[in-house]
Design goal:
The protein has 367 residues and is of the alpha+beta class. 34% of the residues lie in helices and 17% in strands. A hairpin with a 2-residue loop joins strand 5 and strand 6.
Length: 367
Amino acid sequence: MNAIEAQSRIEALFQRTVNRDPLIRNAYFLVHSERLGVHLKLAEGTDRAAPVHEDQPYYIASVSKLFAAVLCARLVEEGLLGFDDPISDYLDPELLRGLHLYKGQDFGNAIRVKHLLNHSSGLNDFFEDKPKGEASMLELIFGNAQRGWTPREMVEWTKTRLKNHFPPGAGFHYSDTGYHLLGIALEQATGKPYHELLRRHLFEPLDMKQTWFSRYSEPIEQSNGSPTLARLYDRNRDVTELESLSFMYAGGGVVSTTADQLKLMKALVEHRIVGETTLAKMKSERGRFFPGIDYGYGLMIIKPMFLLMPGKYSSWGNMGTSGSWLFYHPETDAYLIGGLNQFRYNRKGLRLMFKAIDILRRCDRQR
């Protein structure tokens, strides 16, 4: 199988995946491997009755955590903070007070920056954890669409409603609450708004002109001919413009294109945005996310696991609940980036990526 045939098969796979699922209104997929000579940038579906565009920006959901971690690593390399720093160095006492109560003890002062990055803080997750006897955060977000949420309001909401899970460093529990705190800590460490940090340290150096931080900034380059923001859905409901989506912040608020995300991931793989030693640390200090998937500093590491995860899929990057993904597959030197723009579609996006990897591996063997 040559590169042209591989691209044709991946395109057909993508079209089948989208067209067979009525809940997927618009979707995007980029596959790039210099070694195999593959470069494919796809879009499928419609957006407000018009065909979607391959350069259309979309919400990348929790792939934003990779952006947050790379930003944090850049600031660490510049000496503005450290992975081992207590977050109490950067959070005011009012926000820290009562933040991490567990079995009658307050562990807030024991949380370090690295605990937020790899979800080992023991803090709750406002996105998935549910309070007793009242509405969950997701119910509030979709039930009161016009209410905006600041990062501090989100954290304060969790203090009296959600239980924490273990002392810092003693386990793994995925926590969007932790990434809110990370964004706040980075702002306090630098004296700059989070969206400005993203632009100054990532978007501008990497020429990511169609990437921005939702509700806080605009793309670097705007023109009348630029594709509009792709619609985001929760089943049959268009939630793109909900004011309550402001809840996403550092853990989920980035909007980007597949091409811009490729620029970031290539710079990360090639050690042009953070150093090799720093990247190795981001990968190595990790916990178990799911069987076959570990989580480091903002990075998911897909690893071999007997019967559950074949070694052929070994890769690293991140994915989001909206069916977004951004991964590098070392065996084929392939970058796989995309989004399905439907809440709770993370597994469907991952399955699509794995099938594309199967095609790339056959191409590699038959060269």
